[in-house]
Structure formats: structure tokens, C-alpha cells
UniProtKB/TrEMBL annotation:
Residue spans of biased composition, Basic residues class: 53-66
Source organism phylogeny: Bacteria, Bacillati, Actinomycetota, Actinomycetes, Pseudonocardiales
Pfam family, one: DUF6319
Name assigned to this protein: Mucin
Superkingdom in the source lineage: Bacteria
InterPro entries to which the protein is assigned, alphabetical: DUF6319 (IPR046282)
Chain intervals for the UniProt region annotation (Disordered): 1-69
Length: 154
């Protein structure tokens, strides 16, 4: 670039109305022009890359690992209608041998899932029928004992 061409460019820019700057780095010659050209291209590429949405996870963001807790609740019932619960956290026992009313077991099963409540209610109903039969038998024995007592008093 010569001094004359530099002065002409200054005069042209002074006379021309102010508009958006144009890229003149491609038109100029010399080492400064070649050094600025890659910088401008890198700046243009950086602008293009920031405009495009990036695929995948952003850097620095890791996938959240869900922490699982292992709790084991065991509910055991007998034919007599007695229910017990045991709770285990991992390999450590939290509670053992807790007596639970049959009604509480039935309510809990209904709240957990319908597939759980059906079989549990069947077991509870069978135990209820067994207890009713036992009560009827004991009432019959009681009536016999009262009759025997009445005969002895008479």
C-alpha cells in the first residue's frame, strides 16, 4: 500500500456517507492484511458456532445420578389373623416383630396397589371366617357349661 492510495481511501471515506463497514481486508495487500484475515474468519466462525444450537449435553453438566434407598418391608400374617411387620434398611434391621392390626394391613395394601389388596383381603377374610367359627364353637361350649351349672344348682 502506498501513501497515495492510503490518502485516496481516506478522502473517499470522508466524502462517502456513513454506512455499514465493509470488509476491506480481502482487498488490501501486505502482511497486516494476511494476519487480520484469519482473525476475522475465526471471529465469523465463532459467531456462526454460537448461533447454532449445540447438540448433546452442555459441557460441565453431568447427568444426575438418582440415589436409590433400599428399604425392605416384610409383612407376615398367620391363619389366626395376626400380622407382623419387619423393616430392613440395606442390611441393617430397623424394626422387627411389630404387631400390626389386620385392618391397617388391608388399608395399606389398598393404598399401594389393587393387585396387592386382592390377595391380602382374601387372607384376612379367611382368617375372619375362621375366627367367627371359633367364636361360634366357644359360644356353644359356653352354653353347654351354663346348662351343666344350672343342673347342678337345681
Amino acid at each position: 500500500m502506498t501513501v497515495d492510495s492510503a490518502t485516496q481511501e481516506r478522502e473517499q471515506t470522508a466524502e462517502a456517507p456513513q454506512t455499514a463497514p465493509t470488509e476491506q481486508t480481502d482487498q488490501t495487500d501486505g502482511p497486516a492484511a494476511t494476519e487480520n484475515a484469519p482473525a476475522n474468519q475465526k471471529a465469523d466462525q465463532g459467531a456462526d458456532e454460537s448461533a447454532k444450537p449445540k447438540r448433546g449435553r452442555p459441557k460441565g453438566a453431568s447427568a444426575r445420578k438418582t440415589r436409590t434407598v433400599e428399604l425392605t418391608l416384610t409383612v407376615t400374617g398367620t391363619a389366626d389373623g395376626e400380622w407382623q411387620a419387619e423393616l430392613k434398611h440395606g442390611s441393617k434391621w430397623v424394626a422387627r416383630g411389630l404387631e400390626i392390626p389386620a385392618a391397617a394391613v388391608s388399608r395399606a395394601a389398598k393404598e399401594l396397589h389393587a393387585e396387592l389388596s386382592g390377595p391380602i383381603d382374601e387372607v384376612i377374610n379367611a382368617a375372619r371366617e375362621q375366627q367367627q367359627a371359633k367364636v361360634a364353637q366357644l359360644e356353644a361350649e359356653l352354653e353347654q357349661a351354663r346348662q351343666a351349672l344350672a343342673e347342678l344348682e337345681a
